[in-house]
């Protein structure tokens, strides 16, 4: 698929065909392409946990334990996705890397960072996975785990201390899906969001 077509087709899919697994070779291409993302100092401070079959259900038994009917309805289609990829950011990988001689920030002071690049870089890795999913003819949705359930999820799957759960990528074959109501907001144009030479200059 041409790259521009991948970009155009990329959207969050919230309903999947039940019982149709993601082929192992496709799963590995999705993961492998994610690892091609850039990272500050080539720190590669990310980690990914794949969940399929019974392991996937272990996640949902925790995350779906929610009395909010709207949330339960929202995840109904997501739960059919045969593959979940949990994305983690590892801050210490960056602090360690930038304390090495060629960087020299031996104080490991987080104030040196204009933004927490451990989150930024993990997000870029996920975006490459999302694009790969489209290229493979599948669908995906990146969403957050319920904040009050994250601790239990980390414990359930033995995630080491220091790895922050950024989000969950559900992957599968897309089924009929209602467009998100959020899309009614419309996509902001280049003229609205790109400032040229000076903030407030919106020339085409």
Structure description:
The chain is 36% helix and 15% strand. The protein is α+β, with helices and mostly antiparallel strands. A four-stranded antiparallel β-sheet has the order 1-2-4-3.
What's this, in brief?
The protein has 204 residues and is of the alpha+beta class. 36% of the residues lie in helices and 15% in strands.
Write the SSE topology.
Blueprint: H1 3-9, H2 24-34, E1 46-52, H3 53-63, H4 69-75, E2 83-90, H5 91-97, H6 117-135, E3 139-143, H7 150-156, E4 163-172, H8 190-193
Antiparallel strand pairs: 1-2, 2-4, 3-4
Which architecture name does CATH use? 3-Layer(aba) Sandwich
CATH superfamily name? NADH Oxidase
Helix content: 25-40%
Question: Mind telling me the C-alpha Rg?
Answer: 19 Å
Order of helices and strands: HHEHHEHHEHEH
Largest sheet: 4 strands, antiparallel
First-residue to last-residue Cα separation? 29 Å
Strand content: 5-15%
Give the spatial strand order of the biggest sheet: 1-2-4-3
Q: Uncertain regions: pLDDT < 50 for 5+ in a row?
A: none
Query: Mean pLDDT, rounded to whole units?
Result: 92
């Amino acid at each position: 698929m041409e790259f521009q077509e991948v970009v155009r087709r990329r959207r969050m899919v919230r309903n999947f065909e039940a019982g149709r697994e993601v082929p192992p070779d496709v799963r590995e291409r999705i993961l492998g392409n994610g690892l091609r993302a850039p990272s500050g100092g080539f720190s590669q401070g990310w980690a990914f946990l794949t969940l399929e079959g019974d392991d996937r259900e272990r996640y949902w038994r925790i995350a779906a334990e929610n009395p909010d009917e709207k949330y339960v309805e929202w995840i109904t289609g997501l739960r059919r996705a045969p593959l979940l990829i949990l994305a983690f950011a590892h801050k210490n990988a960056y602090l360690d890397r930038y304390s090495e001689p060629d960087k020299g920030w031996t104080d490991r002071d987080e104030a040196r960072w204009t933004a927490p690049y451990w989150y930024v870089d993990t997000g870029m890795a996920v975006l490459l996975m999302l694009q790969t999913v489209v290229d493979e003819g599948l669908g995906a949705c990146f969403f957050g785990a319920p904040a009050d359930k994250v601790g239990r999820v980390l414990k359930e799957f033995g995630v080491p201390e220091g790895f922050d759960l950024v989000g969950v990528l559900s992957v599968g074959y897309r089924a009929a899906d209602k467009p998100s109501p959020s899309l009614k907001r419309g996509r902001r144009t280049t003229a609205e969001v790109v400032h040229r030479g000076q903030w407030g200059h919106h020339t085409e």
